[in-house]
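INPUT
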Amino acid sequence: MKSLILHTAIRIVMPLLLFFSVFLLVRGHNRPGGGFVAGLVAAASWALYAVAHDAPAARQAFRIDPRVLIGVGLGVILLSGVAGLLAGRPFLAGMWLNPEFAASGEVVVGTPLIFDTGVYLAVVGVVLTIIFVLEEE
Amino acid sequence: MTDLLLVFPVLVPMLTAVLALLAYRSLHGQRTVSMVGAALVFAADIALLIEVVRNGIAATRIGNWPAPYGITFVADEFSALMLALTGLIGFAVALYSLAGIERESEAFGYHPVYHFLLMGVSGAFLTGDLFNLYVWFEVMLVASFVLMALGGERRQMQGAIKYVALNLISSILFLAAVGILYGMAGTLNMADLASKFSVSDSEYSRSVLRTTSMLFIVAFGIKAAAFPLFFWLPASYHLPAPAVSALFAGLLTKVGVYALIRVFTLIFVQDTGYTHTVILVIAGLTMATGVLGAVSQNEFRRILSFHIVSQIGYMIMGLGLFTPLGLAASVFYIAHHIIVKTNLFLVSGAVERIGHSSDLKVLGGLYRARPELSMLFLVPALSLAGLPPLSGFFAKLGLVKAGLIQEQYLIVGVALAVSLLTLFSMMKIWNEAFWKAKPERAGMLAYSDVHLRYQLTPIGLLAAVTLSIGILAGPVFGFAERAGNQLFQPADYIRVVLGGVR
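OUTPUT
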């Protein structure tokens, strides 16, 4: 099934969705959002691409195997936890570069953001692995 | 340092799984990562055990949030022992998997999932928070679902569906019980719950507590394969690859038993006359039905599966007696059982490899064909039945003694009778598979003369551990007694977890 409307729309919708997913990721520290939903949104944009074209094309456009992304995501999560251990504090202890901004609603960079990024990558990896396999069947 | 030691049993399997995922293109790379990871976890678990024995209960606050608000990882002697056993089994089965898993399954992600399973099991043994325990159960179950279905044969799927369905029901009950507890007490930290419920004139309704405790018994009872909801286990454990069933047989049901013991020594101790009597009755029925189920079976791994059920009864018998000696005997029994049962499943895998079947009617004459394997079968088999001087004898001795002191003659009688039947069914396997001449029939394959290097090494290792537990029964039981005392008097545990908060 090829839809011209979807085909054309995807060029605009997809970058929007991807940007929105990054926005959700960064915003998620103290407000609604976060790595999980952001990952779902990003994966949804690729799923849409796979619907508009087909799964092999989406796989090709995605370039890397989504399974690798699961590994990378989990690895990033692990790193964010180990950062606490390296600083002589318990595992997963939160540390920030600019905690003074937290009250003003600015983006605070720290281990929780790294953790969320890991979740984001892992979610994209898992969802796309499933979707690509199902689409190809 | 304890911060590190307490998270290693979870972190190392996770890192191993991640690396194995990243190396998914290369089988060789995955195997190397898996072996190194398994060895490192084992080493880390031993280090934690030594630390706990030397310096007492250890705890760390994940994310630096103080208890009871954050999640605490705690290791008392019981937890540390369970972790060390997890490490041992994880290592032995990983070694066995080098030759015991089909290439297709390996390429499909056997190694990463294997380590995710170990991560879930270790997390369940470490956590001091009920909801977190639920999460680790799920990690473990999701990984076990994959391992159970890996290979994708039709009959395997049938077993997997029963396994998945029953375990999901148990998870829902567990979650419901956790929700009720949270509604009552406003906390899920186990030490905090314990200190809230132990106050004699507590404001909490006894009947609601009793109901919740029954929910926990059912939820953990399903996971531990206790009577009456054990039938998923013999329906599924003989179907996946032998290495997988060995891992499941050794570790998964024992996590259920661990959770039962933890919850019913720490949280639900206000009403022992009721709750622990229920547990004792379940223990007796589990022993009896399991062993009777085994008697009627004729397939190597199915017999062993029914024996897991029967042995679960012994493990919770000590909990039901609820004395320091009873708990110590339970701890000893679990340690003995994990090693022995995994080993028996590994032997069954090796037998299947040689004989192309696990049907006792087809097998025979293995003693002549493979004397070394036969001897290695006898060690865990006789230990399971409880013959001196092997580990099983001392485990049962402890339980019987604890039962006699409590004057619970009925359960002691059941335990002794069941152990006789266990001996009978181990001898049945011995006679049929190893002793009798190999039946000659048309179309039957001859025994293959494959080299069993990768199979015999872990089997020998575990048999050696069984023998040394038997020889060193005194000191090992001494350790179990200390663990039993810690479980019976959780004041230390509570103090270490909540330390400084109140």
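end of record. The radius of gyration of chain B is 22 Å.
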